[in-house]
Hints:
Blueprint: H1 9-32, H2 35-56, H3 65-90, H4 95-102, H5 105-116, H6 123-147, H7 154-174, H8 180-202, H9 209-238, H10 240-245, H11 250-262, H12 268-284
Helix pairs in contact: 1-3, 1-4, 1-9, 1-11, 2-3, 2-8, 2-9, 3-7, 3-8, 4-11, 5-6, 5-7, 5-12, 6-12
InterPro entries: AA-Vitamin_Transporters (IPR050638), EamA_dom (IPR000620), EmrE-like (IPR037185)
Domain EamA: 11-140, 152-283
Keywords: Membrane, Transmembrane, Transmembrane helix
Amino acid sequence: xxxxxxxxxxxxxxxxxxxxxxxxxxxxxxxxxxxxxxxxxxxxxxxxxxxxxxxxxxxxxxxxxxxxxxxxxxxxxxxxxxxxxxxxxxxxxxxxxxxxxxxxxxxxxxxxxxxxxxxxxxxxxxxxxxxxxxxxxxxxxxxxxxxxxxxxxxxxxxxxxxxxxxxxxxxxxxxxxxxxxxxxxxxxxxxxxxxxxxxxxxxxxxxxxxxxxxxxxxxxxxxxxxxxxxxxxxxxxxxxxxxxxxxxxxxxxxxxxxxxxxxxxxxxxxxxxxxxxxxxxxxxxxxxxxxxxxxx
Length: 296
């Protein structure tokens, strides 16, 4: 029987850095190019890279219903998440706030699993869910107070969070027997086609080619290839709960990176939200205690 163990720092640190750096880099990208055009280019390059890897590794490609399930998972996990995040950042949502909202994925996933898949929620996970909601409310409240008005673009960010969580559950329920390498390629292809259709309507343009190009290359290499590969390795080593808990460290590091790169000075509300989100993710990803049989 497989027994999970702790995830070594040499694996955990790159995962946190890759994910945290993606938000400021994405903000730089949408400042140089239209958000859905940028997302389409990122997903297209990622799809090409993942397809080549799957072919070189001679992965078994999905067929029949498995193709449809992979496509749906890709539309949720990639198209909805990245489209929502980049669309929100292009409309003024700070990178640190985006990272904090998306870091609620483990907590929201646990709540959706309880609601849709009838998985049991422990007391710690319920507390984590409440703290997660409070973290988002505190952060958004602080942003409204600072700007003097409600930014409706945050709804795009929340949509990205919902897509990320729903996509993970859909993958778990319908894509379990699909080769991860080829399945990821199909998912990204489907997402690129969907966002590409939106980009056509958007009439996107690029204002700074060098900045947009460097941003896309960083997002593809560290996010779509190295980041995903390292995360899947962490799941194999320490289990899904421990791997998901790593996301609790993403918002603080994002705030640190965004400060000098984007000039986003973290407010007191953001710092409080990060503290609440970290606690929520730790509680929300805690494994349920194993029930041992009583001796008679």
